[in-house]
């Protein structure tokens, strides 16, 4: 080949590799909407991207994109592809933050394309996949997260090994999260909780979760919403599938919990004691063959409405329904359940209390359908609960 032809080919190659001739791994600063591609995003889609993530450290490009958004916030979109994530380093107010994708800026919208945007936590990272820290106005939407529990090395760090976690670094900092939404995400195999949101106006909506090693969804603080989520447990044992801890004013509605295979849980839906004002309505909790569930609904919060729920447990292993003081329990269908006031010895190794607390308000228990259920009448009567199951509730005896 002639020398001029050789030089022409070399110069063309250098031109094609030069910055600005295609997406790099560095997101541009100042844009309010940054589009990122994975290393294996289809070539036609890569042309839309502002930057392309590397194969093994996608978090670097994603975090750079979030940091490069304007101070007022903005949107980061992850195109279809596989994003392998590793623990990223962030020091916030002299405290380390544990996570792969780190959001510490207000008004950030992080979105993917559903199951085709796959986030995988690499082995031995032992961190949250997405960590939202002390900010407001953050939405995480349509991401598919595999937190790779089997590949992690540290156990018993449920709060720092979540699929998606929103909270402060330390309560004393006063930087509470607010207006946080996690919507239409798939979260599975977290070494800790699937979705943990701590703050005000926090929402977990229309997510799909499976086989996380601690609670699949937990809200703290409040007000908040857990709505339209589907949770399936096929392996492992957890304390609570979904519910609240240290929260007031929470709506838990239209969720489906299925425990099957070798999956087990202590509680299906839980609201934590010492707090109040929950509405637990129109949920389905079902235990299928092989699954194990001790307490189907554990409504410990006071002044709580439990309405329109379906709880179905196997006849050989009935579930417990635990009701707190001041609860209004109406219009539910309970199958194979033992129902009682919170102090019932059904789930506490102690005798019945002889009398109600001085400030007890009792429980309104009316118009429920009880299929092969038992009522711990003593615990009800000791707490000033008018109980007339043959009149107020439809009761069906055990089937032959």
Automatic annotation (TrEMBL):
Keyword presence, Signal: yes
Keywords carried by this UniProt record: Signal
Residues of the signal peptide: 1-20
Tagged with keyword Signal: yes
Record SUPFAM superfamilies: Pectin lyase-like (SSF51126)
Source taxon at top rank: Bacteria
InterPro entries attached to this UniProt entry: PbH1 (IPR006626), Pectin_lyas_fold (IPR012334), Pectin_lyase_fold/virulence (IPR011050)
Name this polypeptide is given: Right handed beta helix domain-containing protein
